[in-house]
Fold these 2 entries.
Entry 1:
Amino acid sequence: MFGMTNDASVNALELLKRDHQQVDKLFKQFEDIKEGAEDSAKEELVTQICDALTVHAAIEEAIFYPAARQALPQEQGQDLLDEAAVEHQTLKDIIGRLEAAPTKDPLYDAGVKVLSEYVKHHVKEEENELFPKIRSSDMDLMAVGRELEARKQQLQGRTRRGARNGSGGRRAQRDREQGETERGQSRTSH
């Protein structure tokens, strides 16, 4: 599963970097298949990307960023954490648009590309600017890593359960919404 490990002692920065690498691989897979793939294959891959990014953002926001704010002096990275919060909101907006859009949308592939570029920018700032500051701080990287891993597994479990029971997924949501729209139109046309 995305960035999961069996190692009981997980360094927070290494866990986050593994997540970054995994999502980069998913974006590369999308680039490789986007021209000739069936819509369902593209949608499945984009769902994996969006789910992975959503879980990653959630654990960073709930655990890693608060720990980083506490570990870093005001002048040593608080601005990077503020920027990361804004970047996460933009990523969530793009993810929401992709999740709502059909794969046949003429801007679908462009949306995935923009998401990929935005994620690469965010990752570069985190790994090159924020992570070195965190390494030199007094943050307990192992304790934070264990928290990140536990929360991540919890969130991924929800994602998998939702997909298995049919309540999750972009297509299921669109189908439900489409059905509601059609029922509403048939009531008003009588």
Entry 2:
Amino acid sequence: MAKRKHCAHAEDSAASSPDPAAASAQQRAREYLNAGARLLAQHKPGEAAALLEDALALDPHNVAIAINLGGAYILQRRYAKAVPLLEAACQREPDNAMAWVNLAAAYLGRLELSDVHQQDRAIDAFERALLADPQTPHVNYNLGLIYKERGDVARAMAHFWRALEIDPDDRDARYWIELLGRSDATDPARSGDDADGASSSEASPS
């Protein structure tokens, strides 16, 4: 099965403080952030989280740190710990697409174990990422996976096609387009507008 794609990484953009002590703390926080981001790139989320937690303690309002730390938690499947951190980041910077991407991943958890409420919250957050930046990588792919899981093939295909428009080299999106296209062709009971399993009476708003 094609992999999920999430956990955006962010660079620090915090302004320096005129207070020398605060400026020193921010400098150390940036150093921890950079080291943590390198560890994330090396697929070492546990080590990254330890550094990023120190960074956040030094600079608790730094959104770039929150995005990276949230990503580290997600990679460790510590979703409940990631959610409040990333919700705060989205409140501070509501136009930060990367913050919404990671929040969506935290809301969703493992797709195959997620319920309708988790999926609805993830969809809302992914759509906020697209509002902030319609070209945000992997968002349409992840939306396609959610709708595929729900049985809404038409919406899934639309998002996989959009993912391929944004990144023509996205082999995972192409894989699902081809697979779902073959399924439609061989299943006379399925139409493009069929959304069996796409909704549930248990769904609740975010």
